[in-house]
Amino acid sequence: SLLLLIVPFRTVSASAVLVGGPLALLLMLSVRYLRRLRLERALRPDGRLAIPVLLFGAGAAAHQLVRSMVHDPSSRYVPVGMLDDDQRKRHLSIDGVRVLGGREDLAKALAHTGAKTLVFSVANANTALIRDVRGRTVSAGAEFKMLPSVSELLDFTVGVADVREVQVDIAHVRDVQFTDLLGRHQFETDIGSIAKYLKGKRVLVSGAGGSIGSELCRQIDRFQPSELMMLDRDESALHALELSMRGEALLNSPNLILADLRDAEGIRRIISERDPQVVFHAAALKHLPLLERHPGEAVKTNIWGTLTMLEACANVEKFINISTDKAASPISVLGYSKRITERLTANAAAGAEGTLLSVRFGNVLGSRGSVMTTFTAQIAAGGPITVTHPEVTRYFMTIQEAVQLVIQAAAIGRPGEALVLDMGQPVRIADAARQLAELAPSQIEIVYTGLRPGEKLHETLFGPGEEDLRPLHPLISHLDVPALDPVAVRLLDPYSDPEKLLTQLAELC
Fold first, then answer.
1. Of 116, 145, 166, which residue is a domain's last?
2. Which pLDDT belongs to residue 348?
3. What is the predicted pLDDT for the residue at 14?
4. Which of 145, 201, 286, 326 is catalytic?
5. How many domains would you assign to the chain?
6. Are 337 and 299 in contact (CB under 8 A)?
């Protein structure tokens, strides 16, 4: 009451309440917005230092990539626009970055925004689109980079529980690779069935230091076998393998086994003592021209070595023999030797309790001695690229894809079969050479040298009488393989006349 005597009472009009409330709310929101705007600007990369980039593709991957760039002050790139062929996405804006048009507007958008780099951010795009957008980008004088496929980002996750939303950021952006231009479809693996036969099992990989063997070891290791025994005759290869898998190479692990397939007694002792349950047999000689000149070496390693492994592994749960598409209608020593191993595996499977089978696939990108590895080395040396024939074609797979097939085969394959992956359309080697040459910083010449002895113009996946049957997986063919009595191969003389030996090998196929 005393307060009322000192301060006269004044009524507040209704209009003041109606106007003042919203004004106060607006003022409060404005302060918060300005504070947030200031914070976001502080988080954006410095436009004076970061490289302006244009993105092709405005899907989920592009959304994550844009947000990754605009909210990272240390980012090397700053997005200045996007392109997408989907008309519904025209004028879409993500964190202030607008869709400026489709691929037909690419050159104009690069010039308008000042972008010197285009990042291709369409998930699992087809090869034709990648080639077209890359061609337009290079023609406009800009650099072409891209996001890897979703399968690369997931990196062959082990189980359904491990699969999570893929987080895309600027660290994933890379230069275009030949595999991006190859046109391979993604191979879907049945993770559950794979884990069922590998987890907690004793697994042995022969030829573990090779390209296929080492990738087998890395992928099998993710399925938590109780033991992963890695066998190879090359101590340096075992050193490199342990270093790649463990980050150190002390070479003191009992799971690193130094042994040679030609030492039959040694192999028998190792298998008997270590008692593997699952065996992946990847050890082999594979260089076609050398084996044409030294067919006896193919007998001793590829044929007799596989026979030794089959006999020693008679009681294993699963045995997977790694073969090649050269075993289909073979004309080379390599093809003969691998076809014979398929038949020996079928013979051993008939009397075994476990599942013994073969897996057949084509050329592996990135493996030691592969044609693409050779081309890459020739380009690095300034050229020329040497191609045997303008029309020669081959089937190609990545190492990861080949290994996934091998691991999947053991889960779905039946005793004695040879399994073949649908490898898409064969690739003209000359076209592949030109595409690789286009990625080079300088002009590279292509020289034709002629087909080598034992080399086919076109490889085939199936031999005479082999049917393309796919009862269990849409991308895997199951072939019946006639058994071969091992007595016949024991009679081979690796030191006999090469022409005579070649005839004998052909007869055993």
1. 166
2. 97
3. 60
4. 326
5. 2
6. yes
